[in-house]
Amino acid sequence: MTQAQMQVSDEVAIEIRGMNKWYGQFHVLRDIELTVNRGERIVICGPSGSGKSTLIRCINALEEHQKGSIVVDGTQLTSDLKNIDTIRSEVGMCFQHFNLFPHLTILENCTLAPIWVRKIPKKEAEETAMHFLEKVKIPDQANKYPGQLSGGQQQRVAIARSLCMRPRIMLFDEPTSALDPEMIKEVLDTMIELAEEGMTMLCVTHEMGFARQVANRVIFMDAGQIVEQNEPEAFFNNPQSDRTKLFLSQILGH
Amino acid sequence: MTDTNVSFVRTEQIPPSPPPAAEAGIVKWMRENLFSSILNTVLTVIAAYVIIRLLMGIVPWFANGVWEAGSMRECRDILAGASGACFAVLVDRWDHLLFGFKYPPEAYFRIVIALVLLLVAALPVLFQTVPRKLLLFTGLYPFIAYWLIWGGSLWTPLMLLALFVLTAMVYRLIGEQISTDMRKIAAAVVGLIAGVGLAYLLFIGAGELGFIANSIGTSGALNTVAYGAFWLMSGFTYLFFIPMGIFVGYAIYNSYEGGGLVSVVTALLFLYAALTFVFGPVSDGLASVVGLELQAVASRDLGGFVLNMILGTVCVSLSIPLGIALALGRQSDMPLIKGVCVIFIEFIRGVPLITLLFVANVMLAYFMPPESNFDLVLRVIIMITAFSAAYIAEVIRGGLAALPKGQYEAADSLGLNYAQATRLIILPQALKISIPGIVNVAVGLFKDTTLVSIISMFDLVGMIRGPIQNATEWIGVYWEVYGFGAMLFFVVCYGISQYSQWLERQLQTDHH
Ligand SMILES: Nc1ncnc2c1ncn2[C@@H]1O[C@H](COP(=O)(O)OP(=O)(O)O)[C@@H](O)[C@H]1O
Ligand SMILES: [Mg+2]
């Protein structure tokens, strides 16, 4: 399946308008405008410290923004506690360092939030968890602890853990950059499969092969701003801004 | 010159082989560990000499030990100049060492039952594999033990139990079951009561502080300092009693949306009101209908090692939850809660335990209404608990700080709320890291319970220092009784420490 065939609907999943964020005096995100339709796969790249993580962490309110608006699934993000928890349970997130819960087994990692947040009976939650663990191809590790798994396996568990909440949007923050090269592919394969099923995805990554294959839009950020965005072919073959060109030449080693 | 050996391809796999067997033998071990160098040999010889001299002194002391004698003089006669212990004192004063000298002997069996039941109640807490249903018994145990040890009417602990259950129900009712509008009304009423009540208490307290200052007087440098300090505190309290009342009352009112603070304060107010107004009459009434009495024993009649055990068990089990609450409070975003916790922890850590015990002994009586008859053992329990809770809070804070930020973020991103994230993700890991520190505090606390001997309570050390060493027949007994005391404490503390090491291994999840 090529990316052109993947469905993108007109329904808006995330709408960010004039969003600004500061860390103290430091202006991290400046006038971010971004609309993501349901089913879109967006790759965000840019130099280190450009605010990529901060941007996607604002989308599930792990960070508060100070100006502008973010609407996720029709819900406005404010500092009101109730709707923050609703948003978070609709938006899955995978971190660079997996952040699995080391004191719980793989299965317990996957069933914890469904049981406590969604109030799903334990048995049903376990069935769902096994379903997604099979999907990421590690059902046989269900009773081990995260510390006993390889990095690639842990990241796939982290993806399964998010999926168990049946999120409508998935956020990835450099999911492969803490992995050994031979494990990157297994995680990317899982993510590609997810994209093919029509999941709305925002992914911070420097895996340009993945971007070409899966993304329908690539966003380049620098110094807290969105500098350029385009379809992957155009973005890679014909970058417009000098900063993008410089970044691409560094990352692709030309 | 050409060298073709640079390229190399392995064609067959080297089969795995077992590691070389360790060379064994006692001679080899001794050569490696005791006589590996000249210095080492010299040290070994010196150590051997010291050990042998010690054994030469101690072994006959134990071997010649006299177990049957009525007094120190008889012991000496039996020993006839030879070196030997007079263990007869342990036999003679066995009951006193364990139970104190005032506890009625016919009720000893009640304490024994309470201790045996303690083991049962502790099982499900200490071992995960024990059926969880036993936890119900653990919950009931404090009330059973109270009745067994202190005696009196069974209605007292039963009523207390009922009150606690009711308090929990009030907490749930206000916190979860009523609508926000209702809660707003409740918050206004409770905030008003609590604010006015606090202001009133502070006002009275300020007066009391001044009274204490005057009764200390200014004779001597130390007294003058204390005099000044108490007047300072008094003035400070006079200055702030109204603002504090308004502030706290308003904070309670303001919490109506989330419901956390209102429900806690309402539950506490309910408990207080029920204890002061309903508790006495109802339990007296019930007792007059159906007795269910055991012979009552006053707190001041408790003593011996049992008193150490009671203080140790109660204070450890209270100070761990209190310490957790303080540690979490210290991390709180809410300045009021954070401030209270920081001040409490830092104040307690800056004061020696013995000072707190003196305060418990003398001064707490000032703050209590005269008719409340506030039990000395209870006062001591409050002080020791506060003391060790502050230390445990700091240990747990270390555990919380050691958790990677990613754990909080992962919990947040899955939609867990603060209480769920804390209980399911943060605390299990933070407590696991804190086990060695908590055990350290618990062992220290248990040994520190002997300090109560200084405020004239007759725990094990108090018994030895007082009634036993002062008895005419046992004058001069020293090593035997203190050795016995040390042994009792060692057994318990060593047991705790072994358990904690076992627990740490159990909780290890990275390699199995
Ligand atoms: N909690 C924080 N407090 C202050 N500055 C921060 C914080 N988190 C990130 N920053 C700063 O914000 C900038 C953007 O960070 P980040 O979004 O992590 O960048 P990226 O993910 O693109 O590498 C960086 O300069 C970083 O130093
Ligand atoms: Mg980043």
From TrEMBL, chain A:
Statement: the UniProt record of this protein carries the keyword Transport: yes
The keyword Transport is annotated on this UniProt entry: yes
Membrane-spanning parts: none
Keywords in alphabetical order: ATP-binding, Nucleotide-binding, Transport
Domain ABC transporter positions: 14-248
Ranges in a coiled coil: none
Domain of life, source organism: Bacteria
Matching CDD domains: ABC_HisP_GlnQ
GO molecular function: ABC-type amino acid transporter activity; ATP binding; ATP hydrolysis activity
Pfam (any one): ABC_tran
Matches recorded under Gene3D superfamilies: P-loop containing nucleotide triphosphate hydrolases
Family: Belongs to the ABC transporter superfamily.
PANTHER family: AMINO ACID IMPORT ATP-BINDING PROTEIN, PHOSPHONATES IMPORT ATP-BINDING PROTEIN PHNC
Protein name: ABC transporter ATP-binding protein
Species name: Actibacterium mucosum KCTC 23349
Automatic annotation (TrEMBL), chain B:
Record's compositionally biased regions (Polar residues): 1-10
Membrane topology summary: Multi-pass membrane protein
A biological-process GO annotation: amino acid transport
CDD domains xref list: TM_PBP2
Transmembrane residue ranges: 38-63, 107-127, 134-150, 156-174, 186-206, 226-253, 260-282, 302-328, 340-364, 376-396, 433-457, 477-496
Any single Gene Ontology cellular-component annotation: ATP-binding cassette (ABC) transporter complex
UniProt key word Transmembrane helix: yes
GO molecular function, one term: transmembrane transporter activity
Region (Disordered): 1-20
Subcellular location: Cell inner membrane; Cell membrane
Record keywords, A-Z: Cell membrane, Membrane, Transmembrane, Transmembrane helix, Transport
Domain ABC transmembrane type-1 span(s) in chain numbering: 305-500
Main location per the UniProt record: membrane
Similarity-based family: Belongs to the binding-protein-dependent transport system permease family. HisMQ subfamily.
PANTHER family: INNER MEMBRANE AMINO-ACID ABC TRANSPORTER PERMEASE PROTEIN YHDY, MEMBRANE COMPONENT OF AMINO ACID ABC TRANSPORTER
Xref: NCBIfam families: HEQRo_perm_3TM
Entry protein name: Amino acid ABC transporter permease
Species, as recorded: Actibacterium mucosum KCTC 23349
